[in-house]
Write a structure and sequence with these properties.
about 180 residues; 6-stranded mixed β-sheet; two-stranded antiparallel sheet; alpha+beta; about 30% strand
Length: about 180
Amino acid sequence: MEGHTKPIITRLLDEPACTLDLHDCKTLSLWAVMKSMVTEPISPPEHWNYSDLDRCLLYLREQIPPHTDVWIAKSVNFPSSYSISRNLSTAASQVRAGVTTLDFGVLAIQVRKLVVPATVNPRKKFTVEEREGPWERTLLQIWPLRGEPVRWPAEMGVNGELGLDALADRFSPVSPGSTPAAGAE
């Protein structure tokens, strides 16, 4: 997976603008989800969002777990690397959720994973509210696939450590609601 992803990341790091086709988006998403899985054991097990089955299917079949979303953004004024995971779960919600935010040079990546138990009524909707920010102009969603190539970079970027912290804090905890969360239907 690393070998397939390296040319895509190199292109994003080296070229001021480029297009990611659907294969590029899936490859980069697989790698980002794998990185999110690798950082998960830092948290207590009750906050883990990936099952052993999720890990096996990613490894053996290159299958991204359900209810997973991946975004990328251009990162500026941050010469180091960045990695943080946030638990979005609350005691009031039956759904667990987490978000992992990573940064490598000029590339910021965010992975959000919801875990909807089989015991939850499939008609029940859950929301993960997005905090204010210029996210539509900053982030490019690469998973789930939208059927069109993605043009890099977005109109705006994430600026420095404060921008990365704001991105990491982009989502509020999961709560029962009337609007479905992205990927939760």
